[in-house]
DNA sequence: CATGAATGAGAGTTCATTCAT
DNA sequence: AATGAATGAACTCTCATTCAT
């Protein structure tokens, strides 16, 4: 290192940011493992290697860390969805492929799902939290709804329910399956989600096409 | 009062059965409202109008009430399923109608679903409880799986995944949708479940029928 | 069974006495094992095979059982002592032999000693109990003191302290050694008590004998 | 006060050491008065003027305070014994005098004895505690055994039992006599211990001295 | 900013005791 | 006399939170 860039030592701001980041990370892991209620602030501080006071220097309460996690959750999901949505001019096969890889992500990132359940549960209890949560949730639902709407539009079919409702249902399916996960057993979540998605497409009406055409020739299971 | 229609006073057994029943009822309501972890034994006893000691005269621990609720849950679900399964020789329309009314039940009985989530969450934390829980869960999954298998058999179609897996997926969907419920908004659970079910049927293969036949003429959405 | 001796069934009084006796026995065992404070009335009733109510039909409180045990203790000790004391005209060797067998009793009956400590401890806490206890204790101390006094008198020696005090000291030694007992290790109580007793005799003055005589020829270790 | 030694205020470390010390002191007094089982953590905290939480900031459990007291006990006893043991080249009279003053200490420090009994009792119930306790106990027994062995060696006599066993017996005697203490009555412990010790010396053999010598001319009671 | 001793409320649980049966 | 459900107080222990340092 040259004398002009010596800083092994973090500036005060950097150090503070690090403390905060470590607390958030630790909190997420503990919430996933032990649940929100089953995690104490002492736990978070201890596992992160800080004192309880350090926690309170960064967050006003346990709920505030959860909010912070919610924001991270939100950003990650928004990024994911923009990948699915923004790229125009795709064939149905490509969109379905995208959704498939999204489902695979869920499969791998079990922690997010578990955390997501914790968020939802806590929103059901705490009105304060519910308010912030609703925003995130609605945004996500709208985003996923748009992807689904687009898929059906590209296929030239009418979805069997409002795209946003279908989006909510897929998220519900994801959460419900995450709840069923047992360590050691293979997780069929991604596969089942696709099975259901293909089902929806199969049952979707072809509004103004000539009758007798094969309904879904392009999408063999 | 005549000697043959005796005392408003409860006999000892009746009285203790009443106590137990009231504690269980109160516990269920509180678990649904505040979650398992968010409910204290003090709460249960207080709301039921008894002392904490009364609770411990009836249950060895908080987990034991949850087990009791699980058993009730189990019986109710078994009864429901036997209605769906046992009656032979039905048309596909009848079976679908049965499933529809089952979905409607879920719609109305939001508490059961919320409680069911609590059960599943607690099973994920407590090995003791998980053991008992797994039994109930497996039985229920097998039961619902049988109904689904029968439906596809009656329709002469091949289900797009193992019936038991589909059953698990529908339960997941139910739980996930229950999680999303917000007081004041209409609950689309039952409707969405049927949408997905119809989708599965639509995408199911017709193993040995003549090609070109209209795949699902009997089941318009 | 002949018709003239039918009674498989206990009379009410007999049955009650049996209940009482079983409760007392169970209580003693539990007090010895877990201590007075570590034993609950529920424990006593359960282990004896009765309800808690049965306990309260026989005793007003936990302390009353302890009193009952104290009385039993007292009688047993009185009987023991009267054996040591009453038989007149013994040689010193015989008396020492008697004491030796008394010490051996203590060795075997560890339970009595442990219980005795519990009694003494409880007397130190409860004034009510202390009152009754003091009587028993004083009687026992006086009894054992008389034996010791007699022993010295027979030997024609002056005890190095008041016989009653020596009695108390021997009981203290017994209790203290009982406290040190560890399961699995041999218990040297009886032997040590005799070692100390011989010591007292050895150091006892020969008030009016000719000087130069061998002090204790008759009692080699 | 000069500016260099200003603050009446305690530093943080001092203050927390004070808290700990007060809790330990209070615990000791209460254990002595009410017994280990009869003392609640609430009691300790209340009497020390702190909250229960303060207790748990300093000790993990009630047993840990007892361990702390045990350590203090151990140190005090070790110091006492090193006084008795270390100083070489003493006449028998001096050693006996030392033991006499040791016995007098016991006399005055009744609390230690009572506490010692509580320690022993708790060791009999809790395996965890027993482990630590055994170490202390063995050390003390060995130490006192050494003093006794030295005494007999100086006197040129053979002790009537293993010095360690005699040590254990004297500790038992001490404990047992402490148990008998009743407030208001004079406590003969110290005196009786010396009576017994002189007895042991009197009955000790003179292995290789000329026969006919006066056995214990130097030690008149 | 970070510390962690101390707080006070509340958790699950046990217990001696009461009383309708 | 015996039952055991129910009581209410007390127990050990954990927690989110505060605040002097």
Any overview of this molecule?
Chains A, B, C, D: Residues 40-59 bind DNA. The structure is a homotetramer of 221-residue chains. The first copy, chain A, is built from nine helices and no strands. Chain A has 221 residues and is mainly α. Chain A has two domains: 12-59, Homeodomain-like (Arc Repressor Mutant, subunit A); 62-203, Orthogonal Bundle (Tetracycline Repressor, domain 2). In chain A, α6 crosses α8 and α7 (127-155) crosses α8 (163-180). Chain C binds chain D through residues 34-35, 37-38, 117, 120-121, 124-125, 134, 160-161, 165-166, 168-169, 171-177, 179-180, 188, 191-192, 195-196, 198-203, 205, 215-216, 221, and chain D through 34-35, 37-38, 117, 120-121, 124-125, 160-161, 165-166, 168-169, 171-177, 179-180, 182, 188, 191-192, 195-196, 198-203, 205, 215-216, 221. The structure holds a DNA duplex (21 and 21 nucleotides).
Percent in helix of chain A = over 70%
CATH class of the largest domain in chain A: Mainly Alpha
Number of helices of chain A: 9
CATH topology of the largest domain in chain A: Tetracycline Repressor, domain 2
Rg estimate of chain A, integer Å? 22 Å
Terminal-residue CA separation of chain A: 57 Å
* The CATH homologous superfamily of the largest domain in chain A: Tetracycline Repressor, domain 2
Beta-strand proportion of chain A: under 5%
The SSE order of chain A reads HHHHHHHHH
The rough form of chain A would be described as elongated
Structural class of chain A: mainly alpha
This entry's quaternary arrangement is homotetramer
Major β-sheet annotation of chain A = none
Mean of pLDDT of chain A = 82
Counted beta strands of chain A: 0
Number of domains of chain A: 2
Domain HTH tetR-type (chains A, B, C, D): 17-77
DNA-binding region (chains A, B, C, D): 40-59
Protein name (chains A, B, C, D): TetR/AcrR family transcriptional regulator
Keywords (chains A, B, C, D): DNA-binding, Repressor, Transcription, Transcription regulation
